């Protein structure tokens, strides 16, 4: 039977560390008044740290008369590590010699120092442990010292877990951090990581305000000594534009009110790429979503990948499903693609194979010679019956003037008393909303037989009572959470 005496081994190695008479390595850490020397055994370092194994192998065959950061003199190997503070290094040596580390009573700054040093010294298990400790046990300290922590960990490529923790925590309550006096001093990578997030819980006008303040502070020739726009030259604006060039596309301008756009964005027109400014101006004048610059609203409750409509229009459809404003949705909506005619062909058999028994579905159709988008919501899903009317009060038919327009939408719901005729299921057809809007073979049909309310005349215009070949049909499975 194996018997293991790990406790005794750790205790003996700890004594060896504290009474290192036969040391052959000196490591000097820290600098100036906060500097300390440690006498250590090279065999322990080689066995425990890949960094020291490589460094000691390099130095073991080299003799030098001059003292360098890493050098060998009189059979004593010397290292200088001014970037590691003594308190952190003591914890690291305890781990190297005994495999033990106790961070419970250590100040946060020393623990952060252990994280940085363990990364440099390639102590992977210790690095992971310290990262977890900062997340689980030091979250309050991390929050109080976000700038120090972020500037430190964004330099460590292995520190993704702590980076994600910090960014997610900030996104949940970003205003105190973004409006703090330290925000303008942040490294550009950190600012970029924050502004690109869809879950950043902040008003877009506030995000814009503080991006501008950050950019002014980061731009040579501007900053606190030159933050009065009235005194800026063209070269000042050009310099600010260069600073902000990667960040402007991250701003969700369509989420900024017209008043805030006029007061806060328009004065900085010179720093915004012309194509973005023109897109946004068109949005405010025409209420038409930008063609190329639109990003999803932060914390959007809708997800869709459609060739026919923008995300905001999917939000409007979700609002129609709940019979409320799309900004007040009670659920998150995923529109997952089931069928796309440009890929799958305009074919009822394929349609049924891909769409039957998938639950509630959204249908979108585009005419070949028109920008108009037609669609229908089937809350029952497609079931492939052999000719059967299906009862629901929740289906509806709709149209958009195009895939961007959020002003001229039309919707027609099932007429009271006709819910028994809301959906017609026939496996020989594709979709069929009450024989009012349906797909038969490779044709789309519109009729007004009274089953849907009078808005159907506007929804179907100008193709009411006319069948046409679609340019594209998309069908999405709808799930909520």
From TrEMBL:
It comes from the Eukaryota. PROSITE patterns: BTB, TLDC. Residues 307-479 form the TLDc domain. Pfam families: BACK, BTB, TLD. Residues 23-105 form the BTB domain. SMART domains: BTB. This is BTB-domain-containing protein. It comes from Rhizophagus irregularis (strain DAOM 197198w) (Glomus intraradices). The lineage of its organism: Eukaryota, Fungi, Fungi incertae sedis, Mucoromycota, Glomeromycotina.
């Amino acid at each position: 039977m194996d018997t293991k005496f790990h406790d005794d081994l750790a205790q003996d190695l700890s004594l060896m560390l504290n009474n290192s008479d036969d040391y052959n390595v000196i490591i000097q850490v820290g600098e100036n008044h906060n500097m300390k020397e440690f006498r250590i055994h090279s065999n322990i370092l080689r066995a425990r740290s890949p960094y020291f194994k490589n460094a000691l192998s390099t130095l073991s065959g080299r003799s030098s008369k001059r003292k360098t950061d890493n050098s060998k003199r009189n059979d004593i190997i010397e290292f200088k590590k001014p970037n590691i503070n003594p308190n952190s290094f003591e914890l690291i040596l305890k781990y190297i010699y005994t495999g033990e580390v106790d961070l419970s009573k250590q100040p946060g700054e020393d623990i952060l120092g252990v994280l940085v040093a363990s990364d440099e010294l390639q102590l992977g298990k210790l690095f992971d442990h310290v990262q977890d400790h900062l997340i689980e046990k030091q979250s309050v300290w991390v929050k109080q010292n976000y700038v120090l922590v972020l500037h430190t960990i964004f330099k460590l490529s292995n520190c993704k877990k702590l980076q994600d923790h910090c960014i997610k925590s900030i996104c949940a309550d970003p205003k105190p951090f973004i409006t703090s006096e330290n925000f303008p001093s942040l490294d550009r990578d950190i600012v970029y990581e924050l502004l690109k997030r869809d879950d950043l819980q902040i008003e877009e006008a506030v995000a814009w305000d503080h991006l501008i303040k950050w950019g002014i502070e980061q731009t040579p020739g501007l900053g606190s000594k030159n933050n009065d726009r009235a005194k800026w030259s063209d070269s000042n604006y050009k310099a600010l534009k260069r600073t902000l060039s990667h960040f402007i596309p991250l701003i969700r301008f369509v989420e900024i009110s017209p008043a805030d756009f006029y007061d806060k964005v328009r004065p900085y027109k010179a720093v915004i790429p012309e194509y973005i400014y023109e897109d946004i101006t068109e949005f405010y004048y025409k209420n038409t979503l930008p063609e190329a610059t639109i990003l999803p609203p932060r914390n959007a409750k809708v997800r869709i990948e459609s060739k026919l409509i923008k995300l905001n229009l999917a939000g409007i459809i979700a609002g129609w499903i709940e019979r409320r404003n799309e900004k007040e949705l009670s659920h998150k909506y995923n529109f997952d693609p089931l069928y796309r005619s440009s890929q799958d062909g305009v074919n009822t058999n394929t349609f049924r194979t891909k769409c039957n028994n998938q639950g509630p579905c959204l249908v979108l159709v585009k005419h070949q010679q028109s920008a108009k988008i037609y669609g229908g919501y089937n809350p029952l899903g497609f079931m492939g019956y052999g000719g059967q009317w299906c009862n629901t009060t929740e289906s509806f038919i709709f149209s958009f003037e195009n895939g961007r327009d959020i002003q001229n939408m039309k919707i027609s719901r099932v007429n009271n008393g006709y819910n028994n005729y809301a959906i017609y299921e026939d496996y020989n057809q594709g979709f069929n909303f009450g024989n009012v809007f349906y797909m038969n073979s490779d044709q789309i049909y519109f009729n007004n037989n009274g089953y849907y309310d009078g808005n159907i005349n506007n929804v179907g215009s100008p193709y009411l009572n006319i069948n046409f070949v679609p340019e594209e049909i998309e069908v999405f499975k709808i799930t909520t959470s």
